[in-house]
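As the work plan foresaw, the team has encoded backbone shapes as discrete tokens. One protein thus recorded appears below exactly as we store it.

:::
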Amino acid sequence: MLNELYQKIRDAFTDRELVLGEGNERADIMLIGEAPGRTEVELGRPFVGKAGKNLDMFLAHIRLRREDIYITNCVKFRPTRISEWGSVANRPPTPEEILAQRDFLMEEINIIDPKVLVTLGGVPLKSVMNDMGASIGAFHGRPCTGKSGRTLFPLYHPASIIYKRELAATYEKDMDRLAEYISALG
């Protein structure tokens, strides 16, 4: 079923380099990021760049392995802009890009059927909650129920600590809360 979904996504976005999800297709925990960056597109895998290194560090901290979870993005292609220096740079997905791929994400979630959705940043939180006004600052670090009825555990995006070092302690506390929550689930 996942292969069929991924083919539908490829057919819908033939003009884009896509990075599709990976991991344990029977995972109890699904991590959902924003969109791939340059390194992810080059390697064809989610969360393998700088943010991925932060994510790996935090996953190790709470004793989760990448092969035990499923990792994907709500937007499957790299949103870009031309920087002031003329180079290609990442940019956040637009609400239109998020909404254009939301049905694919929801189908992916239904196929994996995890117990917990961990959204990494505001963009996947907005997508999963189907609420473009949802703020990560209001939801991070605690479980909540999304409109789909699934348990969400929103976290700041791992890249946020690259740009705002003061979030590192908050991110670590949130990861500890996630570990406690997962432990309580069994």
Q: What stands out?
A: The mean pLDDT is 91. The CA atoms of residues 40 and 48 lie 6 Å apart. The longest strand covers residues 29-33.
